[in-house]
Amino acid sequence: MNMSDHQRHKLHATARLLALFTIGYNLVEGLVSIWLGLSDETLSLFGFGVDSFIEVVSAIGVWHMLTRIARNSGETRDEFERRALRITGGSFYLLTVGLILTALTNIFQQHRPETTRWGIVISLASMSFMWLLIRLKTRVGRALGSPAILADAACSRACLLLSLVLLAASIGYELTGIGNLDAFGAILIAWLTWKEGREAFAKAQGLSCSCTCGHG
Fold first, then answer.
1. Residue 209 domain-assigned (yes or no)
2. Mean pLDDT rounded to a whole number for the chain
């Protein structure tokens, strides 16, 4: 194995490690966000947590793809990845409907969360990790000339955008006490998850990713 092959092998290993970290981080983030969202009756944080769990399915598909690419240098999608993307897309659509219906109910009932402080903490932590993952995945993808890895890095930006929405809704409520801000934040998250679902189905059909998709 010459030096260039050795470097390529190390870069592929780094890409798979980043995918595994993404899976582990989203599992922890999802558990914590859902638990705190239920405890504080914060819909935007709860929806953010469910999104993280859906992202785990997508990240598993990415890890599987990267493992296969390292073995045979092919970047076409196999049936496992397409099935994972279809499950991911359907789950995002269900989350979208659930968030919108619950948000509208909360607005009608003038529901107020107990606090959104944990939303601030979790969104800031998520933004930090997503920023790091985007940089590392982009660096590896460019070094390998891999469209698949670069697409994964670009799609991580949607997680960053979700975190920004959660942060804005959480800070807004803490500063103003307007309960509907939490519901409006959940509706914005629902809009983003709908776009993620659309992208997942597009990728399952082999279309290119415009990368408004896929938490932590």
1. no
2. 82
- Give the domain range for residue 89: 3-204
First-to-last alpha carbon distance for the chain, in angstroms, is 35
Residue with more model confidence, 205 or 93: 93
Of 42, 33, 47, 31, the closest CA to residue 171 belongs to 42
Note the pTM of the prediction, 2 decimals: 0.78
AA identity, residue 157? R
Residues with Cβ within 8 Å of 96's Cβ and at least 6 positions away in sequence, in order, are 190, 191, 193, 194, 197
d(CA 63, CA 58): 9
Q: HSE on the CB side for 24, CA within 13 Å?
A: 8
DSSP string, 129-197: HHHHHHHHHHHHHHHHT-HHHHHHHHHHHHHHHHHHHHHHHHHHHHHH--THHHHHHHHHHHHHHHHHH
Residue 94 lies in a domain: yes
Q: Which of 188, 208, 196, 209 is nearest to 119 (CA)?
A: 188
Within a domain: 215: no
Q: What's the gap between Cα 23 and its chain centre?
A: 10
58 belongs to a structural domain: yes
Question: Can you give the CATH number for the domain in which 97 is found?
Answer: 1.20.1510
Instruction: Tell me if 160 sits within 8 A of 52, measured CB to CB.
Output: no
Q: In this predicted model, what pLDDT tens digit does every residue of 92-115 receive, in sequence order?
A: 888 888 889 888 888 887 888 889
Q: How many domains does the chain have?
A: 1
